[in-house]
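Q: Please design a sequence for this.
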């Protein structure tokens, strides 16, 4: 996965980013969309609760307190957008 390669090779110094799980990396690009967590859960074939839990974990690892901040931080780190 290209995103995993970016995280593993170039962003190890970014706080928390290297600890993103496979599920969180699969979710990350969908956070850039305007899809709701329910819609994302349908696309990933997981429960809405799982999406919310993973999103909160992504926010924490990126040092963000909201979806918008997480997207901005991910863009700064070259992880999408």
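A: Design:
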């Amino acid at each position: 996965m290209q995103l995993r390669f970016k995280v593993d090779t170039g962003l190890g110094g970014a706080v928390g980013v290297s600890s993103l799980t496979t599920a969180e990396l699969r979710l990350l690009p969908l956070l850039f969309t305007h899809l709701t967590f329910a819609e994302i859960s349908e696309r990933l074939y997981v429960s809405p609760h799982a999406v919310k839990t993973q999103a909160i974990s992504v926010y924490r690892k990126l040092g963000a307190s909201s979806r918008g901040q997480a997207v901005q931080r991910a863009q700064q780190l070259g992880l999408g957008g």
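Q: Thanks. Anything notable?
A: The mean pLDDT is 85. The domain at 25-81 is CATH 1.10.10.10 (Arc Repressor Mutant, subunit A).
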